[in-house]
Amino acid sequence: MFASLLAIITVWLVRRIVLVLAFRHVDDAAARYRIRKTSMYAAVPMGILLVGRIWFEGLQSIATFFGLLSAGLAIALKDLIVNLAGWAFILSRRPFNVGDRIQIGDSAGDVIDIRIFQFTLMEIGNWVHAEQSTGRILHVPNGKVLSEVLANYSRGFQYIWNEVPVLITLESDWRRAKDILLDIAQRQSEKTSEEAKKRVEEASRKFLISYNKLTPTVYTSVVDSGVLLTIRYLCFPRSRRNSTEEIWENILTAFADHDDIEFAYPTQRLYYNATEGKPGVRSDPDMGFPMPPTRG
């Protein structure tokens, strides 16, 4: 026991000395974080190796020791083994790094720490709109990366497609409204589209990513309440809410100057077909049937 305690203290002291010497010459917070994590990953196996050698020195075969140890761990510590395997997968394949925004299963957030058995997220979304931070910290077992679908916002393309639906009345001049929305979206994404082209070229070297059009567009559809014009544009994941706010402020300002464009919203109205319908389908107010079309 004394030898084991001495070995642990020695490893701990060596790690502390390394950290003190490194931090004297490194001021960057990200670099310090990597040094601290790397030193811990090196110290833990070293300590286990030293203590294991002290306690199991009498065994004739190291294979016997590892066989017995693995059998016991497989039964009693199944979840810990899975999390350890997930940690090894994270270090080797790098599906995400500290600082990346990811979604795994039902949990989404910014990665703020990676440990042997779990990684930590600063949660986004949930009850907060536009995927902004909730302020909660989520501790996710590393084994989740082996069994859950993982989405990384920050790798590869590094952009997301955002959509802003704008609903106007059927009586509005939808063509003019569409031109206004397209102009607003283009001004919003003027710099983003050029940068996105470079990102697509870089990502295509590693992934099969191909976009024929990266510039903003406006789609037209008809719903129960009116004409739906949907703006689709590229933005950074962390600027989704700010860009949406800026677009809506520009829309409100632009539509206020046009009397022939109105927003649609749930309302009730009386419609008298005899006078409001198209000439060919108007009903006879006396008979209640459609009137035949008039011919000149």
Overview of this protein structure:
By secondary structure, the chain is an alpha+beta fold. It folds into three domains: 2-76, no CATH class; 101-152; 160-255, 2-Layer Sandwich (Alpha-Beta Plaits), CATH 3.30.70.100. 46% of the residues lie in helices and 19% in strands. The chain contains nine helices and eight strands. The strands form two sheets. Strands 4-3-2-1-5 form a five-stranded antiparallel sheet. A three-stranded antiparallel sheet has the order 6-8-7. α1 packs antiparallel against α2 (29-55) and α6 (174-188) runs antiparallel to α8 (240-255).
Q: How is the topology of this model organized?
A:
Layout: H1 2-25, H2 29-55, H3 62-76, H4 78-93, E1 101-104, E2 107-114, E3 118-124, E4 133-141, H5 144-147, E5 150-152, E6 160-168, H6 174-188, H7 190-204, E7 217-223, E8 226-235, H8 240-255, H9 273-276
Antiparallel strand pairs: 1-2, 1-5, 2-3, 3-4, 6-8, 7-8
